[in-house]
């Protein structure tokens, strides 16, 4: 991050249900991707925001297996972005979205992240605008206090 003069902002993160080492892998990978797919001529800006959601606010079938409330964690960057038609493909195993010159990795990182998040009774999704950046949203059950 220092080498790219990146800015990182994060709200305090709540406790979620999960296996810490697996969730660390997810967040490490998502932050690394935000840096990897940043614009060369612009310093990367990565923001992590959080909002709590009650179960009644959600209607996704994968979220119906738990009785707890949830948290949505969004990781937003100002990178190169992804074409709308490619957004769901980024979570497919061995899938790499065609970028100009950035072709690193094997194409299973985001598929691995999705598998971990689903194993934690959560969901992950992406929104993006080509040339403006990407927002990855993760919804996970909150830990009971």
From TrEMBL:
GO molecular function, one term: ATP binding
Annotated ranges, domain Histidine kinase: 1-144
InterPro entries, per the entry: BphY/WalK/GraS-like, HATPase_C_sf, HATPase_dom, His_kinase_dom, Sig_transdc_His_kin-like_C
Gene3D superfamilies: Histidine kinase-like ATPase, C-terminal domain (3.30.565.10)
Reaction(s) this enzyme catalyzes, per UniProt: ATP + protein L-histidine = ADP + protein N-phospho-L-histidine
UniProt keyword terms in alphabetical order: ATP-binding, Kinase, Nucleotide-binding, Transferase, Two-component regulatory system
Any one GO biological process: osmosensory signaling via phosphorelay pathway
Listed SUPFAM superfamilies: ATPase domain of HSP90 chaperone/DNA topoisomerase II/histidine kinase
Domain of life assignment: Bacteria
EC number: 2.7.13.3
Pfam families listed in its UniProt record: HATPase_c (PF02518)
Protein name, per record: histidine kinase
Protein species of origin: Spirosoma aureum
């Amino acid at each position: 991050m220092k080498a790219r003069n990146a800015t990182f902002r994060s709200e305090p993160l709540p406790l979620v249900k999960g296996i810490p080492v697996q969730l660390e892998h997810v967040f490490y990978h998502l932050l690394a991707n935000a840096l990897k797919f940043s614009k060369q001529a612009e310093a990367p800006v990565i923001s992590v925001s959080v909002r709590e959601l009650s179960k009644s606010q959600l209607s996704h079938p994968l979220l119906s297996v738990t009785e707890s409330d949830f948290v949505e964690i969004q990781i937003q960057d100002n990178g190169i972005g992804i074409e709308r038609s490619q957004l769901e493909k980024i979570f497919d195993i061995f899938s790499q979205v065609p970028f100009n010159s950035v072709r690193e990795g094997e194409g299973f990182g985001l598929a691995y992240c999705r598998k971990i998040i689903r194993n934690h009774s959560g969901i992950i999704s992406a929104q993006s605008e080509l040339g403006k950046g990407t927002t990855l949203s993760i919804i996970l059950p909150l830990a009971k206090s």
